[in-house]
Amino acid sequence: MVSLDDLPIEERFVRASGPGGQNVNKVSTAVELRLDVARADLPVGLKTRLRALAGRRLTAEDVLVIDSREHRTQGQNREAARARLQAILDQAAVRPKSRHKTKPTKGSKERRLGEKTLRAKVKQRRGKVREE
Fold first, then answer.
1. For labelling, which of 62, 99, 114, 127 has a CA lying 20 to 30 Å from the CA of 42?
2. Can you name the CATH fold of 4-93?
Protein backbone atom coordinates (compact mmCIF):
# COMPACT_ATOMS: atom_id res chain seq x y z
CA MET A 1 0.00 0.00 0.00
CA VAL A 2 1.31 3.43 -0.95
CA SER A 3 1.25 6.17 1.69
CA LEU A 4 0.01 9.61 0.66
CA ASP A 5 2.51 11.27 3.03
CA ASP A 6 5.47 10.28 0.81
CA LEU A 7 4.01 11.70 -2.40
CA PRO A 8 4.34 15.22 -3.87
CA ILE A 9 0.68 16.20 -3.42
CA GLU A 10 -0.39 19.80 -3.85
CA GLU A 11 -3.69 20.91 -2.27
CA ARG A 12 -5.66 23.81 -3.61
CA PHE A 13 -8.92 25.13 -2.16
CA VAL A 14 -11.43 26.79 -4.48
CA ARG A 15 -14.97 28.04 -4.18
CA ALA A 16 -17.54 25.34 -4.76
CA SER A 17 -21.05 25.33 -6.10
CA GLY A 18 -23.83 23.27 -4.57
CA PRO A 19 -25.20 23.12 -1.02
CA GLY A 20 -24.10 25.73 1.50
CA GLY A 21 -26.21 28.81 0.80
CA GLN A 22 -24.41 32.12 1.27
CA ASN A 23 -21.42 30.23 2.68
CA VAL A 24 -20.62 29.05 -0.86
CA ASN A 25 -19.95 32.59 -2.01
CA LYS A 26 -17.59 33.40 0.89
CA VAL A 27 -15.56 30.26 1.71
CA SER A 28 -13.32 28.13 -0.48
CA THR A 29 -14.49 24.65 0.52
CA ALA A 30 -13.83 22.59 -2.61
CA VAL A 31 -10.53 20.72 -2.66
CA GLU A 32 -8.34 20.01 -5.67
CA LEU A 33 -5.52 17.51 -5.05
CA ARG A 34 -2.75 17.46 -7.63
CA LEU A 35 -0.26 14.57 -7.80
CA ASP A 36 2.68 14.97 -10.15
CA VAL A 37 3.00 11.38 -11.36
CA ALA A 38 6.35 11.94 -13.07
CA ARG A 39 7.96 13.31 -9.86
CA ALA A 40 6.32 10.77 -7.54
CA ASP A 41 8.65 8.17 -6.06
CA LEU A 42 6.68 5.16 -7.32
CA PRO A 43 7.69 1.96 -9.15
CA VAL A 44 7.50 2.15 -12.95
CA GLY A 45 4.77 -0.50 -13.21
CA LEU A 46 2.61 1.27 -10.65
CA LYS A 47 3.01 4.60 -12.49
CA THR A 48 1.95 2.94 -15.77
CA ARG A 49 -1.15 1.38 -14.20
CA LEU A 50 -1.94 4.68 -12.43
CA ARG A 51 -1.83 6.57 -15.73
CA ALA A 52 -4.14 4.01 -17.31
CA LEU A 53 -6.62 4.21 -14.40
CA ALA A 54 -6.54 8.01 -14.21
CA GLY A 55 -8.17 8.49 -17.61
CA ARG A 56 -9.22 12.09 -18.16
CA ARG A 57 -8.17 13.07 -14.62
CA LEU A 58 -4.58 13.06 -15.90
CA THR A 59 -3.46 16.32 -17.50
CA ALA A 60 -1.06 16.74 -20.41
CA GLU A 61 1.64 17.71 -17.87
CA ASP A 62 1.33 14.21 -16.28
CA VAL A 63 -0.49 15.56 -13.20
CA LEU A 64 -3.34 13.57 -11.63
CA VAL A 65 -6.14 15.91 -10.49
CA ILE A 66 -8.70 14.77 -7.89
CA ASP A 67 -11.55 17.20 -7.20
CA SER A 68 -13.96 17.03 -4.25
CA ARG A 69 -16.80 19.43 -3.66
CA GLU A 70 -19.62 17.24 -2.33
CA HIS A 71 -19.43 18.37 1.32
CA ARG A 72 -20.01 21.74 2.97
CA THR A 73 -16.73 21.86 4.87
CA GLN A 74 -13.15 22.05 3.69
CA GLY A 75 -12.06 19.27 6.03
CA GLN A 76 -14.68 16.81 4.80
CA ASN A 77 -13.83 17.58 1.18
CA ARG A 78 -10.12 17.13 1.92
CA GLU A 79 -10.76 13.71 3.49
CA ALA A 80 -13.01 12.66 0.59
CA ALA A 81 -10.40 13.69 -2.00
CA ARG A 82 -7.59 11.93 -0.12
CA ALA A 83 -9.71 8.78 0.20
CA ARG A 84 -10.41 8.84 -3.53
CA LEU A 85 -6.72 9.29 -4.35
CA GLN A 86 -5.79 6.46 -1.96
CA ALA A 87 -8.38 4.19 -3.62
CA ILE A 88 -6.91 4.87 -7.08
CA LEU A 89 -3.37 4.22 -5.79
CA ASP A 90 -4.47 0.97 -4.10
CA GLN A 91 -6.17 -0.15 -7.31
CA ALA A 92 -3.04 0.66 -9.33
CA ALA A 93 -0.86 -1.22 -6.82
CA VAL A 94 -2.56 -4.53 -7.67
CA ARG A 95 -0.65 -6.32 -10.40
CA PRO A 96 -2.85 -8.08 -12.95
CA LYS A 97 -2.44 -11.83 -13.07
CA SER A 98 -0.48 -13.10 -16.05
CA ARG A 99 -2.43 -15.31 -18.43
CA HIS A 100 -1.14 -18.83 -19.08
CA LYS A 101 -1.89 -20.52 -22.39
CA THR A 102 -4.07 -23.59 -22.10
CA LYS A 103 -5.30 -26.15 -24.58
CA PRO A 104 -8.90 -27.32 -24.84
CA THR A 105 -9.59 -30.65 -23.15
CA LYS A 106 -10.59 -33.75 -25.08
CA GLY A 107 -14.09 -33.57 -23.60
CA SER A 108 -14.60 -29.94 -24.61
CA LYS A 109 -13.50 -30.73 -28.19
CA GLU A 110 -15.96 -33.65 -28.36
CA ARG A 111 -18.81 -31.51 -27.00
CA ARG A 112 -18.07 -28.76 -29.54
CA LEU A 113 -18.01 -31.20 -32.45
CA GLY A 114 -21.19 -32.88 -31.21
CA GLU A 115 -23.00 -29.52 -31.07
CA LYS A 116 -21.73 -28.68 -34.56
CA THR A 117 -23.10 -31.96 -35.91
CA LEU A 118 -26.52 -31.38 -34.33
CA ARG A 119 -26.66 -27.83 -35.69
CA ALA A 120 -25.71 -29.06 -39.18
CA LYS A 121 -28.53 -31.64 -39.07
CA VAL A 122 -31.06 -28.99 -38.02
CA LYS A 123 -30.02 -26.76 -40.92
CA GLN A 124 -30.01 -29.66 -43.36
CA ARG A 125 -33.66 -30.43 -42.54
CA ARG A 126 -34.66 -26.88 -43.55
CA GLY A 127 -34.44 -27.67 -47.26
CA LYS A 128 -37.29 -27.76 -49.77
CA VAL A 129 -39.97 -30.37 -49.29
CA ARG A 130 -39.75 -33.06 -52.00
CA GLU A 131 -42.75 -34.99 -53.26
CA GLU A 132 -42.01 -38.69 -53.57
1. 99
2. Double Stranded RNA Binding Domain (3.30.160)
